[in-house]
Design brief:
There is one protein chain. The strands form 4 sheets. Strands 1, 2, 3, 5, 6, 10, 16, 17, 18, 19, 20 and 22 form a 12-stranded mixed beta sheet that branches. Strands 11, 12, 13, 14, 15 and 23 form a 6-stranded antiparallel beta sheet that branches. Strands 4-8-7 form a 3-stranded antiparallel beta sheet. The chain is about 20% helix and about 25% strand.
């Protein structure tokens, strides 16, 4: 046992290996250096705060430690070229919704004026109209009340002068009408075709013969037959400025009451039909925006001019180089339909005033103007008391457009009607 102890002591006191001593010393120095570095780093980190991280300095050449191989530099990062954004596909045009079809306006089925085809509040188809002879010499215009006529008929009277016959379905609301002029037999015949009450101021011998034979209901401002002279008066201004012959006026507002008092029939005879047909249809034909109707055989003869207004769908009437106006309203006369009728007319043999005679029975040719276009028509008239029957190019009864109509009675040998 003692030996063993002695051997152990002997081992502990064995002199140290010098190489190990050097290695130990180096490791101790390195550990000390690392400890100092860590302490310094910790102090700086605490002072700088959590947002600042200081990398502790490392001795690039620690003694006895081989240098680590240098890492190759990373190649510079080249950002990828951004991809061009794809153009958004154009959205397909949404299909436009089909416009709903406008509901058709219900067809009017109520009462209409038999002279114009326009709607009226109540049925007036049995009411007799008034056919009024109106002065149309240049010095006697403008006429009073002409703008209220439902139809206007113009024809030669004498010496190249024309006369008008206004057809009025009613005189309600009118105060005065005129100036009133004398009768001619062919005007009497046309008034009979309307079954109208005829209003005039005297007439030619032939006219009185026809008035008596026809027994037409009439009011005469010159030769009174039942006291009707009280319905007429002389307008002082017209008498002074236009002359006595152009000053006779009608008290329109008193006519109906007077006729009732004298038991004059105010409704049509049984079975009477004015014969006019009305309707709105698409028109076709030659352009006719300006129409010039001449009543004589020369370019200088009396002319009535009609100019079309497309917005209002009417023809405005002019004569003597000025607008044809109503002296009561100051408004220019306008019409929807223009009918030019060519008939045989001639001066009565031996008549010093150049009065005319006309053949209004049988058939003939004419022109129809509406909506700015012209078309050929024909006319027929069975006898002296019949209404005109107008027919289109297909031989059908002419369909007039609703509104006022102007009928020009033109001699067959007159200058042709011009239009453009």
């Amino acid at each position: 046992m003692a030996k063993g102890k002695h051997e152990a002591v002997k081992q502990r006191t064995r002199p140290a290996d010098p190489k190990k001593a050097v290695i130990t010393a180096v490791l101790a120095i390195l550990l000390a250096a690392m400890a100092v570095t860590l302490i310094v780093f910790a102090v700086k980190w605490i002072n700088a705060g959590e947002d600042e991280l200081i990398t502790p300095p490392v001795d690039p050449d620690p003694p006895g430690v081989p240098e680590p191989p240098e890492e190759p530099e990373a190649p510079p990062v080249v950002p990828d070229e951004p991809e061009e954004p794809e153009e958004p596909e154009e959205p397909e045009d949404p299909e436009e919704p089909e416009e709903p079809e406008e509901p058709e306006e219900p067809q009017y089925t109520g009462p209409v004026d038999p002279l114009t085809g326009l709607p009226v509040d109540s049925d007036i188809s049995k009411n007799r109209p008034y056919a009024v002879m109106l002065n149309n010499i240049e010095k006697a215009v403008p006429q009073a009340g002409i703008g209220e006529a439902d139809m206007i008929i113009e024809a030669l009277a004498e010496g190249g002068i024309t006369r008008l016959m206004g057809i009025f379905g009613s005189l309600d609301g009118m105060e005065t009408l005129g100036s009133i002029r004398s009768s001619r037999p062919y005007f009497v015949d046309m008034a009979l075709g309307f079954d109208a009450v005829y209003i005039h101021a005297g007439g030619s011998e032939d006219a009185y013969t026809r008035l008596q034979s026809s027994k037409i209901a009439r009011l005469d401002g010159v030769n009174s037959t039942m006291g009707e002279s009280k319905l007429f008066y002389r307008d002082s201004w017209r008498q002074q400025n236009m002359g006595y012959a152009h000053s006779l006026m009608l008290k329109a507002s008193e006519v109906e009451a007077f006729l009732e008092e004298n038991s004059v029939r105010l409704t049509h005879r049984d079975g009477f039909d004015a014969g006019f047909k009305f309707g709105e249809v698409e028109r076709s034909g030659e352009k006719a925006l300006t129409v010039t109707v001449r009543y004589g055989t020369s370019k200088g003869s009396k002319a009535t001019i009609f100019k079309y207004d497309a917005d209002k769908k009417v023809y405005y009437v002019s004569q003597y180089g000025a607008a044809m106006k109503d002296s009561v309203t100051g408004a220019q006369v306008k019409v929807r339909n223009l009918i030019v009728v060519r008939v045989k007319m001639s001066v009565i043999a031996g008549d010093s005033a150049g009065r005319m005679k006309a053949t209004l029975t049988g058939s003939g040719e004419g022109l129809y103007f509406v909506d700015g276009v012209a078309s050929k028509i024909t006319w027929e008239r069975a006898d002296d008391s019949s209404q005109f029957v107008f027919k289109d190019e297909n031989g059908e009864v002419l369909l007039l457009s609703p509104g006022v109509s102007y009928i020009s009675i033109v001699p067959t040998n007159a200058v042709p009607t011009e239009y453009e």
